[in-house]
Amino acid sequence: MLERDAERPPHTCCMIDGTHYVIEPDEPNSFFQGFGGAKFHIHFDDGYEVTTHNLWCQGEPEGYWKEKFPNNAKFDWEWKKIGTGEYLVPKK
User: Fold this and answer.
1) Which of these, 32, 30, 56, 52, lies nearest to 42 by C-alpha position?
2) Whole-prediction pTM value?
3) Residues 39-73: tens digit of each pLDDT
4) Rounded Cα distance, 65 and 8, in Å
């Protein structure tokens, strides 16, 4: 992930609450988009904002790698335990 992030254009990957995400181009006519095409407003720490319907979760870096991926953005969603799984849902 670290190598790929370095090759990506600015503001196309982010760390939010310890989880790594990649922002891919919106594909309005595609059936295959991150999070089923849900709308996300991402606020980067440097003031840049992105709205996307194609956000992909890459997971949480662990151990030694965690420090290599500092948080750099926020959004109005949160991981919530529902039943036996965890789901990303809008914050209330």
Assistant:
1) 52
2) 0.87
3) 999 999 999 999 999 999 999 999 899 999 999 99
4) 19
